[in-house]
Each structure stands twice: as structure tokens, then as C-alpha cells.
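Ticket #4471: structure output looks truncated?

Reporter: J.K.
Steps to reproduce: submitted the chain below (213 residues) through the standard prediction queue, then opened the result file.
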Amino acid sequence: MLTIHVADRVFCGRDEAEAVAVDAGLIIAVGTYEAMVAARPQARVRRWPGLLMPGLRHPQAVALLEAAYHPDPREADELGTEPLTGGALAALAMDDARWGASARRGLQRLLGHGVTAVDGPFVRPVVRTAVARSGLRVRAPRNPGPRETLSLDPFVGFPLRVLIDEYLTVGGPADFAVFDVPVDELPSRALRLSGAGSCVATVLGGRLVFRRR
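Returned output as attached by the reporter:
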């Protein structure tokens, strides 16, 4: 469905851009809201606060999905809500069913952090299946360098330049995220300070796959 996504600013190299038009999973225009609506009055309009930018690519996805357990919300009282690794993971009885469920929860949390692509490859079949069904793009590793902390938030330890998957271009896939951050600051600084938890929406292949409630 033809949709115009409007934010306070679009990260695309054009200062005046504030809207992206999407149809059939592709970006068909980038520019001002007024120009978009004038050219496409029939389009559905979605408005978001903050910065609309290319979807993020998470360099640590393999470790997050194949070497960490994402607790079920019903386990929160016992296990907490953060990914479990090391001794905490070793204490769990993990089988394929539990790995698959953990991966699906982890993938949903990645989408909620503006992630639209992940570095692979994945060796656990149940994890590989979950990733394929999620629609997230799987990329060959970029080797952005080591990071001591394993985090769902890719801005913890990695610079913005290694996290952008593909820049927003007309004719390219409609993979992007919107972060509720100040748009009068440099994006790299604003995103680092606010973190990927400031994501309010993630669009993957033109589909709204995450929206903050």
C-alpha cells in the first residue's frame, strides 16, 4: 500500500527531507512532506517523532541469538528480562524448542531497536529458521572490531558508520527505522546518547514490523 512516512528529519544527505514514500516494498521518493502529499494525495500518511534513517545492521546477532537466552516474559521474576549468557545460560536446560523460542523473542527485540539486518551466518537450524521467517536481511560479517559488551543496542560500542545497512535510495528496499531523538544534533551523537531503545518504528520491506506503544 502506498504510504508516506513523515518524521522531523530524514537521514539521507538532504537537509530538507522529512518524508519517505513507500510502495510495494520499495522507496519511491524522498523529500518534503508538502511535495509528497501533492504528488500522491491518495497515499496513507504515518507520522513519527524524531529521525527517520536507514535500518541498522547488528554485528553481534550470532552471539545474541545462538549464545544467549532471551527469557520468556513469564520467566521474568526468576530470570529477569535481559539476555542470559555464561554461567546463567549454562544453568538452563536448553533444547531446540527453547533455542527457537528464545531466538524469536530476541529477533522481536532487535526489530524494536531499529535493526533490519544482521551479520551471520547462523549454525543452529532452529535459529536459522527463526531468522529467515523474521524477514531480517542476513549479511556477511563486516568485522567492525571487538566489543566487550553484548547488547541488543548496537550503539553500545559501535559507531554509526558501521551500523547503517543500506542508505535510503529511490528504488531501494524500504528498510528503515525512526528514532525519537533531537534532530538539531549530529545523528551519531544523538543516537549514541539516546540509544537504540529510542526507536519508535521499524519498517522492513515496506512493512511496519515494530511500533512503540
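Triage note (M.O.): checked the attachment and the full C-alpha cell line is present. The chain has a mean pLDDT of 95.
Status: closed, working as intended.
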